[in-house]
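User: structure tokens for this one?
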Amino acid sequence: MDINEMYDSNACSIFGGGAESWTWDEYFKKKEELGDKVVLVDMINHPVEDAVPISNEIFAGKYPKGTYFVLYCHSGGSSGYLQKQIAPQFPDYKIVNLAGGIGMYPR
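Assistant:
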């Protein structure tokens, strides 16, 4: 499986709305509470502070079980769509969609 083949980083998917989503405010609160157990994942090559680019490696044991991967795209649509696809494949991780995507980034 190639994670980058599962979505188009230049498009906003209408199939978004993953099972669990956080706002940016919720992300910052959880990051403060849980530290390294929360990983912000950039799906669109538009990095923000502390974000890591999406890659196959991040889902291949680089991070410990129980890590929250918070996916963001342009609007939250593509990240929600990808969340639905990969969450069942990685039950040891929490996959979260960032509602509103980069368009709602407050900083």
